[in-house]
Amino acid sequence: MSLLLDNQFKELPHDNSVDTKLFLDAVSHLPAFIDCLGSKVFSLIKSDITGNITKIQGVYVKDPQRYATLQHILEAERDDHAKEWPKVGATLALMWLKRGLRFIQILLQSIADGEKDENNPNLIKVNITKAYEGALKRYHGWLVQKIFTGALLAAPYRSDFFKALSKGEEVKEEECLANVRHFLVNFTATVDAIYDMYTNLNAELDYSV
Ligand code: CIS
Fold first, then answer.
1. Atom 5 of ligand 1 has which residue's CA nearest to it?
2. CATH architecture of 15-200
3. Where in the numbering of this chain does the Glycolipid transfer protein domain appear (predicted)?
4. 3 Cβ below 6 A of ligand 1
5. Phi and psi of 63, rounded to 5°?
6. CB of residue 48 inside a 6 A radius of ligand 1
């Protein structure tokens, strides 16, 4: 059994629009997975991601037709909150959530590509660091970067990470890597589409926290 295969993202349609409900269904499993990583250090990350998801969900349920795709949400909020947009509502929540998803994408891709610290092959710190530098570091001031350093110390072993992805079962590494590669196909396409949408709508902000 694989958690990743259970929670696959759907293939995108030709116009690359992301269906809000399907997206929310897929990301809703992420906070529970963070608990499986085994350290309380991750609770801060869990609560941030949960807050993002709750905010997007809160907008969606107000009018599922109006907010049928993620792009509909951004455009509607741009009309409704011209002054504050894009630093407002679900637009802001998704801006941050997509960075967490990019982090996960780079982490999984790096593991799938076999990138390893040859001296410590059962660690995934090199993969986590690569993901952090690619997705999040530029948006973090020194204090949050210190939190990252703390989280890195609590990072799971590679074998435990695979076990968590396999819902606690011991699964052969090759099988787990095949599942990761399979999961990445639609997941990467979705994350890329969200990034493109922020660029095309000029909704990306570059401040750091
Ligand atoms: C493997 C362990 C790796 C751990 C490495 C951790 C790295 C990150 C460490 C940084 C700690 C960040 C703590 C929070 C920082 C926030 O201040 C910052 C800014 O927050 C935003 C809010 O979100 O601030 C805005 C105002 O300026 C708003 O308040 C906004 O909230 S709003 O708008 O909603 O009200 N936030 C961030 O920097 C985002 C940090 C995201 C970190 C993501 C890390 C993800 C780690 C998960 C690891 C698990 C790997 C998973 C692999 C597979 C998952 C399979 C699960 C199946 C489900 C599939 C779904 C994908």
1. 151
2. Orthogonal Bundle (1.10)
3. 18-166
4. yes
5. -165, 80
6. yes
Ligand 1 pocket, 51 CB below 6 A?
yes
Handedness of CA 170, 168, 11, 96 (dihedral sign): negative
Residue at 83: amino acid letter: K
- Residue-range domain boundaries for the chain: 15-200
128: which DSSP letter?
H
pLDDT level of residue 93 (50, 70, 90 thresholds)? very high
Q: ipTM of this predicted complex?
A: 0.95
Encode pLDDT of 14-32 as tens digits. Answer: 999 999 999 999 999 999 9
Ligand 1 neighbour 67 (Cβ under 6 A): no
Given a cut of 70, whether residue 130 has pLDDT beyond it is: yes
